[in-house]
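**User:** Everyone, produce a chain:

**Assistant:**
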Amino acid sequence: MRNATEPGPEQDAVIEARKLSAGYGSLAAVRDLDLHVRPGEIVGLLGANGAGKTTTILALSGELAPLSGEVRFGGDASRRSLATRARQGLALVTEEKSVFMRLTTAENLRLGRGGVDRALEIFPQLREHLRRRAGLLSGGQQQILTLARALAADPRILLADELSLGLAPIVVQQLFEVIRRAADERGVGVLLVEQHVRSALEVADRLYILQRGRCVLQGPAHELRESLDEIERSYLAGPVEAPD
């Protein structure tokens, strides 16, 4: 595995994978993965379709049990369910916009742990849609609603899978600006699976690149940005267009 001046795991990592292998049945989609996210940093997880990105997110969240290795959340290596980790400060945004279509925007926000007022502080533009059913919102508005509900709870770690999938660039920019502020101002650690490689390089502090379930390259984003063309050609088979 190549490294680009990448430090080892930190003692204060909010979430960490150590020699993690995960998959479905006995088939490992991710093998021997070492990964960590510290408070206040955004870490990008990139790779072509089938590289193991979504599997990694699910294993870190507790939704998928590891085949081997361990996930440490807040230094605790105990295996916990997604529901338990959510209570401990983990927020998961999946590639599917997780809104309740028949409920209003306000009702969706009340189902989160942070409440309506906190969500509106993060995304004030939701105020005009509070009485509107979520199913009538645009795709971008639904993703804003999903992220607002997640961040309103002031999580310790946000795991975001294909946050920008299918969205207009202006919406993607808004989403990335908000997660950057959450990291910088509130110390939220963010692991971002992203289809737009160049966008990920702009918002992330560090990157991991997966290929066929293994980490093949990692390092600070500002260093990897200099070899972007090589990265896309060698590891990503061009820009990623869809999730695993």
Summary: The beta strands are 2-3, 15-24, 27-37, 42-47, 68-73, 90-93, 157-161, 189-193, 206-211, 214-220. The longest helix spans residues 169-186. The two ends are 21 Å apart (CA to CA).
